[in-house]
Write a structure and sequence with these properties.
This protein is of the alpha/beta class and 468 residues long. It is built from 19 helices and ten strands. Helix 14 (318-347) crosses helix 17. Bound molecules: NADP nicotinamide-adenine-dinucleotide phosphate (NAP).
Length: 468
């Protein structure tokens, strides 16, 4: 009989296969399982020298039997019903002391429910956010763990060994009980949505507004990647904009239908942000933009009904766009940090926010030069809890705010939508005003609802001199 495997992975899709190969490469034996059993064998037989450490199985029973005790089972299947079905099928096969890990993109509330459903069974549950796409899963992802802390300590060595490293520091951490890890992954994806949208809006201003060619714009992004905007997403953008479609010779981006997909994490971030009273308007703008992008025939009808006649090209140089992008990014990350802080307080997770930023510095999709400064600023403590007020960002915000105003104003005059930049500008402007217009809102509320208000010159609750 083959030696028992230290860990098992069920779900041999893109991510499960890549993660299994990564684990095997660290010298650990991995049992493989997939709903369609042949796939587990295909992964093992295609693994070359790593095949010796991969143990494909045909049934869930054989899979569990192939594991050393305590058994560690990683599920890499779609979130929701598939995870629930897998947990239900595994539960009778597992015993107290075993560890179940959901490494998919689960809604953190589902993870909380899974933890609750296993209470009393002695089976520990970990919700593990995995970022970095297939490449990351294969060669070094960022890993955001939540759930049973003692269980994490038992498997930590395996996950730290496969994680990406930032100057030697593994990008893997336990961030709190129950759904904390999956929540952090959700917010990671929310920030990813916002950042992608901001980058796409810059592209839109240059392409649709200024009529520049994709390859030229790609060159600008490539240059920016050597400075404060350095990031995986800017690097990816530079590359895709310079790619040519082999079939037609046209820019590859021009051959792609302009309708963006989404699986839920951006939307969940926006929903949870609103629930927590920590609005993530930059993320919401990105979710909205993706939703509108799918309304293709309605947009075509709109283009015919409301043509943009005589609009000027946006008078924006690349330096202004770069400054605005950096400032908007700081705002978007700041909103992400605020949601994480709010959720951690609400759920009692005690999430170390600086550690979150530290494990995002490598392996994950939002890795960027900015995150090193963000991690440091979070370790030092944010003034008034505001990322954009941290000394490290003072200069970028001072230069970026006028640039943001220019970008939004020029886009408006050119008839180009910039929901992400508009949202970022609204946040930045609001948060630099000592007095807002909420005095009038309070007056209105008191007028029609007798809600009362606080006065600037006296304690207590007051009503206005109106009859309503
Ligand atoms: N792709 C990415 O870049 C990425 C990045 C981070 C996180 N994730 C998350 O990782 C998870 C897996 O994603 P993926 O891209 O690897 O998916 P995928 O390639 O579509 O693979 C899905 C896997 O789940 C199995 N499966 C589907 N429904 C099932 C069910 N009801 N019961 C049991 N097994 C079922 C499939 O088995 P069959 O072969 O039998 O169909 C397949 O092995 C998802 O939660 C995803 O959101 C993905």
């Amino acid at each position: 009989m083959a030696r028992p495997a230290r860990i098992g992975v069920t779900g041999m899709g893109t991510m499960g296969a890549a993660l299994s190969l990564n684990i095997a490469e660290t010298g650990v034996d991995v049992a493989l399982h997939n709903r369609t059993a042949t796939r587990a064998h295909e992964v093992a037989s295609g693994a070359g020298a790593l095949a010796a450490r991969l143990h494909p199985t045909d049934t869930l029973e054989a899979f569990v039997a192939a594991l050393d005790t305590p058994r560690v089972v990683v599920m890499m299947v779609p979130a929701g019903a598939a995870v629930r079905a897998t947990v239900a099928a595994l539960r009778p096969l597992l015993a107290a002391g075993d560890i179940l890990v959901d490494a998919g993109n689960a809604d953190f509330r589902d993870t909380q429910a899974a933890v609750a459903s296993l209470e009393g069974s002695g089976i520990a549950y970990l919700g593990l956010g995995v970022s970095g796409g297939e490449e990351g899963a294969r060669h070094g992802p960022s890993l955001m763990a939540g759930g049973d802390r003692a269980a994490w300590e038992q498997v930590r060595d395996v996950f730290e060994a496969i994680a990406a490293r930032h100057r030697g520091d593994p990008c893997a951490a336990w961030l709190g009980p129950d759904g904390a890890g999956h929540f952090v992954k959700t917010v990671h994806n929310g920030i990813e949505y916002a950042d992608m949208e901001l980058i796409a809006e810059v592209y839109g201003l240059m392409r649709h507004g200024q009529g520049r060619a994709p390859a030229e714009i790609g060159g600008v992004f490539a240059r920016w990647n050597g400075g404060p905007l350095q990031s995986y997403l800017v690097e990816v953008t530079a590359e895709v904009l310079r790619a040519t479609d082999p079939a037609t010779g046209a820019p590859a981006v021009d051959m792609i239908v302009d309708s963006a997909g989404q699986k839920g994490t951006g939307r969940w971030t926006a929903i949870e942000a609103l629930r927590l009273g920590r609005p993530a308007s930059t993320v919401e703008a990105a979710v909205g933009a993706r939703a509108w992008s799918s309304l293709r025939s309605a947009r075509a009808a709109g283009a015919a009904a409301l043509p943009a006649a005589d609009v000027p090209a946006p008078a924006l140089d690349d330096a202004t766009l770069a400054e605005a992008l950096l400032a908007a990014r700081i705002v978007a990350y700041g909103q992400g940090v605020s949601i994480l802080e709010g959720a951690s307080a609400e759920h009692g997770w005690g999430t170390d926010l600086a550690r979150v930023a530290e494990i995002w510095r490598a392996g994950c999709i939002i890795r960027s030069a900015l995150l090193d400064d963000i991690a440091r600023a979070l370790r030092e403590g944010l003034p008034e809890g505001q990322l954009h007020l941290a000394p490290a960002f003072a200069e970028a915000m001072a230069r970026g705010l006028p640039a943001l105003r220019r970008v939004v104003a020029e886009a408006a005059l050119a008839g180009l939508p910039v929901p992400g930049f508009s949202a970022a500008l609204a946040v930045a402007e609001t948060m630099r005003r000592a007095r807002t217009t909420a005095d009038l809102i309070q007056a209105q509320r008191d007028y029609f609802g007798r809600h009362g208000f606080e006065r600037v010159d006296a304690d207590g609750r007051h009503h206005g001199p109106w009859a309503g």
